[in-house]
Structures are given as structure tokens and as C-alpha cells.
Write a structure and sequence with these properties.
By secondary structure, this protein is α/β, with parallel strands linked by helices. The chain contains 24 helices and 22 strands. A hairpin with a 2-residue loop joins strand 4 and strand 5. It binds adenosine-5'-diphosphate and magnesium ion. The site of adenosine-5'-diphosphate has 15 residues, from helix 10.
Length: 682
């Protein structure tokens, strides 16, 4: 008898070769196989008579092969099999390219089902490379077909057949991680049914039912897992930090902190003094002053005889932080050091020594902070800035250099609270929902591409007045190719330089550049040596160039609202009036509504809420910026209501049964989901 853990080689048609290919997809057992969900579906349910086939439509036709198929070699490397099939309404010309075996597969006088894209010219009907099978087989035709992500050596059909067998063998054996009561309360279907329908849905309705259940299950388990992590963390102990008085710090700042900054610092101080490692996320819109909050926490560390490390995602940001924080902290008697990959070896050695001896109380840097050769004397606080640029592994690698240090994560991605609770279920969240006073509004316009010349003129004027500008170009996909951002940015920059602004300096940055090159261009821009910086979204991360006043975003409709907001946050950072121009030729209702939100508000949280409302949370899950266990279905389709339901169900179950004694299947699944992540989440 097959079991869920049976090797996939058990499946007919899966030999050594294919098993190896499947392994690349993470499929080793029957359970892996049936848990390999389609990424899309191909609706092949429509049947047509030949004469009713319309140009370009996809349909099934049942027709008899009229005469033996003919194979011809057109030229080297091109073989054609041609045949004519007929039903009672007409004839269909079928051509197969480079599938010579079709000649022998299809026999004259037999009836087959053909599925493909119809071509219709006058009374002539034809199909090229249709899927074919014996009438009534219903494997590749006449139903909604799953479309699986593939790898070399595995075809759709192989997978379809294998999954079908896998389901037949063990669909009924699947244990249900959802407690029965939860399943009934939330009107969710049985697990076996859901697996069957997610692969081979009988209809759209049934697919929706299956999907809803699987999404719910995933979110439910995630919510429970995160709660448990948090619970476990609460049992860890460390010495409470006694000295958290910061009144002198407040006195030395050139400005008064905002209420939200003070509140966040207060929350951090409370965390530090209870004798448990802190795990806090500080969320604040761009420019809300997160750096000062980090500074306060680092000062606390020094005051309590501990070291603090602040990790930034780029050299520029690390330097920016160092330049901003070191004078302030050193003024208060705290020794600071900067550690980046670009440093000369000698300098680096002295910083390493200072970190190891404890002479450096605050170390600010890039990934260099987690290199193997870096050791700390007594690392008590780890701060990561713009954390979504770091994998959780990097965060935890830094934490591992201390003994259960306090963790502070700073993020500028505004995430609505409901979602933050889910995504950051194991973190406490402080929100800086207030900007320092006196910030100017960034005037934002949404315009069609026909305005481009006027926009360039405006750019020229701003630059003549001494300002600088960003132009963001999106990655245009060409003929299904993976978009090449290098080309997109470089071509655009070249065009601007040569055809529009020959007298100015235009440069470009993109994500495929080496970090060093990228930082070099960014530094030149920061120094004012570049007038216009053409970029893909790499500038998103908190670069501070106060002299830049114009942000032009091409194909703005291709970006998420939150991303547009981040991009816009690159301007309006100095004393000059700033502008954001969103260019889009997408006239769809949805696109216009979204861009309108941008022109109406500068509030990152409102924008995030709006984004969530318009697009659903899939984007947040999809971006994988949080290091959660990978979600398989939830990012395909899930809405906020379901998210909340799953969360509530999880809380209910945990409240009644914190050890999950009554749900062994869920407990087991959680162990699998989190085993690779547990370290990372703490
Ligand atoms: P972000 O949250 O984007 O990291 P920063 O910490 O870089 O923001 O702060 C943005 C700018 O605002 C910096 O120049 C900083 O000195 C300034 N700033 C921070 N807090 C205040 C405040 N309370 N009042 C005035 N300016 C402030
Ligand atoms: Mg910042």
C-alpha cells in the first residue's frame, strides 16, 4: 500500500531520470507530489464543432482522422506531420511541428479530441500543435488543466499524470491539520477534497472552495507558529538594563523629538528593562526619524556596558548613519566605529580590534558586520535598518555574535496593523506615525506619456536652479523574456543624455551592478556631481540627497503604491519644494484610482491601506521581505477578511489548547514549517 511518504518512483512513468528532475522541484515523496500546486490553470472545457471554430479561440474538437498522417521534412531541423480530421460539420487541418511520432500515434478512421488555438480563414479551419488524445480520455482535454511550474526533464503532461496517480493513491490518507471544529465553524472543505480540486478543479466555484480552504490552513498554521515563537521567546532571560535614563540625550539634540519618536523610545526602554531579549520592529514612514530612535537604544546599550551594532543594507547608508550618529554619540562619551567592506585592510583591522576588545561601543556598518572574522566583546543590541533588504538569516547571523542580544528592526515599509500582526507575529511593533514638524508636502502629479517633453523641460528648469532629479524606469518585459533592468536603465539614461540633456550629467544605477559600483554612482549623486540619476528601484532604500527635488517615475502603474511612496520619499528631504511625477499610459479604472491615491495623500499608512484594499495582501506576502516560511497558496489569493478569520481561529485554538495536544497534525506541520526558520526568527 502506498503511503504519503512513499517515494515518487512508485508512480508509473517516474523512473530514475524523472525522479531526479522532480527532486529539483522539491518533490521526493507522494505527499510532496500532491502538495506541488499548479501556478495557473488552462480552461479546456469548451467543445466546438469544426465549422463553429472562430479565429483565435481555444477549444476542443472531437474529430476523426480522415487519412493517414503525412510526415515531411521541410528543411534540416523541421519536420511536419500533417493530417486532416473531420466531424459532421467540416474538416480541420492539423499540423504538428517536430513531433514526428504523431504520424504513428494517430490512425486513420479513429476519433480523437484535439485541443488548441483555432485558426479560421474563410471556410478553412486549422490548428497547429494541438493537444491530442483518444476520444473520452479527458486527461489533457475537456477539463480545466493545471499548469505547473516546471524544470528541465519534466513536462506538464508527465506531472499531470503523476499527480493524478499520486492523488488516487493517497488523497484519502491526507491528515487534516485543521481541527474539525475550526473547519466547520469557518465552512471549509475537507483536506482531501481541497487537494483534488486544487489540481483538477471541476469548475471555478470548486477551485475557489479548495483554494479558500488551503489559504486558510496556511495562514492559520502561520499564525499559530508565530504565536508560539513569541511565547518561547518570552521564556528567555537576560540581565535587565538598569540605566535607561536618556534626559541628557534629549537635551543635546538639535530638535525636539516628536511624540511618536518618544513613544517608541519609551517602548524600547521598557523592553530593555524587563530582563528578556527585546524583539521589536519600529515602523515609520520615510523621514519619520527612525535613526534617532535607534540612537537612543544604542546609547542605552553603551550606558549598560554593552555593545551595539547597527547594520545598514548599503555602504552609503552605513556611512550616512555613521556621519549622523557618531558626532552625537561621541559627544556623549560613546565610542563609535564604522565597518564596511570597502575599507582598506589596515583600517579594517583596527576596527575589528576595537569591536573585539569592546573599545568600540557602537559599531555601524554593512554586511561586513557579520563576516566570520568579526567578533564582539559583548554585543547586547543589534539594530537592522531597512530590514526588508536583509534576509532574516543575516539578521540572526548578527544576533548570533552576541549572547541573546536585544533586537531592533527598523522598517520604512508601512504595513497596516492587521497585516503587521500577522507578518511580524513574533515581533512587538512600534509605529512612528508622525513626521517631524515643518515637512513640505511633495506635489504629486499623474500624467500620460504625452507630457514627457514638458516634464523634461521642468527637469531642466529645476536643475538650472541648482537641484537634482531622479528618473525611475520600470523593467519592460520583452517577448516573454526576463526583464533586463540593466538595459532598461542604461538605455533610458543614454537617451536622456544624448537627446535631451547633452549639457548635463546623466548617470544610471540598477540592481545588477556590483554594490561597489552602485555606491560609487550614488555617492557621486549625493555629492552633486550627477544632475539626473536614472535608476530602477534600487534607490528605494533610504538614500538621503536633500538637494534632489524631482522624482519622475515612468510606467508608474507597474509599481505597488507602497513602492511608489518609498520612491517618492527620496525627494522632499531638504528645504526645497519637491515634486513627484507619475507617468502612465494605463487608462484602466484601477490604475487611475491607484495613482490618484498618490496625488491625494502623502501618508504612507493610508497608502498602504489603500494598496491592500485594491490589491489584497498577496503583494506583501509575495515580496518575501519578512523571512516567514514560504507560503504556497496564500500569496495566490487571499483577502484581508480571510486573514483575520484565520488569525482569530488560531488565537482561539491556542487559548484553549496552548500545547496543541488536541491537534497533533497541526503540531507536526508546524514543526516542519518552522524547523528551518526557527533560528532565524529569534
Ligand atoms: P527615517 O525614518 O527615514 O530613517 P531619518 O532618521 O533619516 O528618517 O530622519 C530624517 C531627517 O529628519 C533627518 O535629517 C533627521 O535628522 C531629521 N529628524 C529626525 N527627527 C526629527 C525631529 N524630531 N525634528 C526634526 N527633524 C528630525
Ligand atoms: Mg532611515
Amino acid at each position: 500500500m502506498p503511503e504519503l511518504t512513499t517515494d515518487v518512483r512508485y508512480v508509473k512513468g517516474i523512473g530514475e531520470q524523472r525522479a531526479k528532475a522532480l527532486e529539483k522541484l522539491g518533490i521526493r515523496t507522494l505527499r510532496d507530489l500532491i502538495s506541488y500546486f499548479p501556478r495557473a490553470y488552462d480552461d479546456r472545457r469548451a467543445y466546438k464543432k469544426i465549422k463553429d471554430l472562430e479565429e483565435g479561440e481555444n477549444a476542443c474538437v472531437e474529430a476523426m482522422v480522415a487519412a493517414a498522417p503525412v510526415l515531411s521534412h521541410i528543411r534540416k531541423g523541421l519536420e511536419l506531420v500533417k493530417l486532416r480530421a473531420v466531424d459532421e460539420t467540416g474538416a480541420l487541418d492539423v499540423t504538428f511541428f517536430n513531433q514526428a511520432y504523431m504520424k504513428d500515434n494517430l490512425r486513420a478512421g479513429e476519433t480523437y479530441t484535439f485541443f488548441g488555438r483555432a485558426e479560421a480563414a474563410g471556410r478553412r479551419r486549422s490548428m497547429a500543435n494541438p493537444a491530442v488524445e483518444r476520444e473520452g480520455a479527458r486527461l489533457m482535454t475537456g477539463r480545466i488543466m493545471p499548469v505547473y511550474p516546471l524544470t528541465a526533464g519534466i513536462s506538464q503532461l508527465t506531472l499531470v499524470k503523476a499527480v493524478e496517480q499520486g492523488l488516487a493513491a493517497c488523497q484519502k490518507l491526507l491528515p487534516d491539520p485543521l481541527p474539525d471544529q475550526v473547519r466547520r465553524e469557518h465552512e471549509l472543505c475537507h483536506v482531501g477534497y481541497a487537494y483534488g480540486q486544487i489540481h483538477f478543479p471541476a469548475s471555478e466555484e470548486e477551485l475557489a472552495i479548495a483554494r479558500r480552504r488551503l489559504v486558510f490552513e496556511e495562514l492559520f498554521l502561520l499564525a499559530i507558529g508565530l504565536r508560539q515563537l513569541r511565547g518561547r521567546r518570552d521564556t528567555l532571560a537576560c540581565a535587565p538594563w538598569a540605566d535607561t535614563d536618556l534626559s541628557d540625550f534629549y537635551g543635546r539634540l538639535p530638535f525636539a523629538l516628536t511624540g511618536a519618536q518618544r513613544r517608541s523610545i519609551g517602548e524600547i526602554q521598557a523592553d530593555l528593562s524587563v530582563g528578556r531579549p527585546m524583539n521589536r520592529l519600529v515602523q515609520g514612514d520615510v523621514g519619520s526619524g527612525k535613526t534617532m530612535v535607534a540612537a537612543a537604544a544604542m546609547l542605552c546599550a553603551a550606558r549598560n556596558g554593552k555593545q551595539a551594532a547597527l547594520m545598514a543594507p548599503t555602504e552609503i547608508l552605513a556611512e550616512q548613519h555613521y556621519k549622523g550618529l557618531a558626532p552625537l554619540l561621541e559627544d556623549m562619551g560613546v565610542a563609535c566605529a564604522l565597518l564596511t567592506g570597502a575599507m582598506p585592510a589596515k583600517k579594517r583591522r583596527s576596527v575589528l580590534e576595537a569591536a573585539e576588545s569592546g573599545a568600540a561601543q557602537v559599531v555601524i556598518g554593512t554586511h561586513a558586520l557579520i563576516s566570520a572574522d568579526v567578533a564582539y566583546h559583548d554585543l547586547g543590541l543589534v539594530v537592522t535598518d531597512e530590514q526588508h533588504r536583509f534576509g532574516v538569516n543575516q539578521r540572526s547571523a548578527l544576533a548570533a555574535k552576541g549572547e541573546r542580544p536585544h533586537l531592533l528592526v527598523m522598517s520604512a515599509t508601512p504595513i497596516p496593523r492587521t497585516l503587521a500582526l500577522m507578518i511580524y507575529g513574533d515581533l512587538d511593533v512600534s509605529v512612528i506615525d508622525e513626521l517631524p514638524p515643518g515637512r513640505q508636502k511633495i506635489d504629486t502629479f499623474a500624467v500620460p506619456g504625452s507630457y514627457r517633453q514638458r516634464i523634461y523641460k521642468f527637469l531642466g528648469k529645476e536643475i538650472a536652479a541648482g537641484r537634482q532629479a531622479y528618473v525611475i524606469c520600470s523593467m519592460v518585459e520583452e517577448n516573454d523574456q526576463i526583464p533586463d533592468e540593466r538595459k532598461a536603465a542604461a538605455d533610458y539614461a543614454k537617451m536622456l543624455q544624448e537627446r535631451v540633456f547633452p549639457q548635463l550629467t546623466v548617470a544610471c544605477v540598477h540592481g545588477r551592478m556590483k554594490p561597489k559600483e552602485k555606491d560609487k554612482v550614488m555617492s557621486a549623486f549625493a555629492a552633486g556631481e550627477i544632475h539626473i540619476l536614472v535608476s530602477t528601484t534600487v534607490v528605494e532604500v533610504g538614500v538621503d540627497v536633500p538637494n534632489a527635488t524631482v522624482m519622475v517615475i515612468e510606467d508608474a502603474d507597474r509599481f505597488g503604491l507602497s513602492q511608489l511612496h518609498q520612491l517618492r520619499g527620496r525627494v522632499g528631504r531638504g528645504k526645497y519644494k519637491s515634486y513627484c511625477i507619475l507617468i502612465s499610459d494605463n487608462q484602466s479604472e484601477e490604475s487611475r484610482a491607484r495613482l490618484k491615491v498618490m496625488t491625494q495623500t502623502g501618508d504612507g499608512f493610508r497608502i498602504a491601506e489603500e494598496d491592500l484594499r485594491l490589491r489584497g495582501p498577496g503583494d506583501f506576502f509575495g515580496r518575501r521581505q519578512h523571512g516567514l516560511p514560504a507560503l504556497k497558496v496564500a500569496d495566490l489569493s487571499c483577502d484581508m477578511a480571510l486573514l483575520r478569520e484565520a488569525q482569530q481561529a488560531a488565537e482561539g485554538v491556542l487559548a484553549a489548547d496552548p500545547e496543541l495536544k488536541g491537534c497533533p497534525v497541526a503540531a507536526e506541520r508546524l514543526r516542519e514549517m518552522f524547523e528551518t526558520n526557527e533560528e532565524a526568527m529569534n
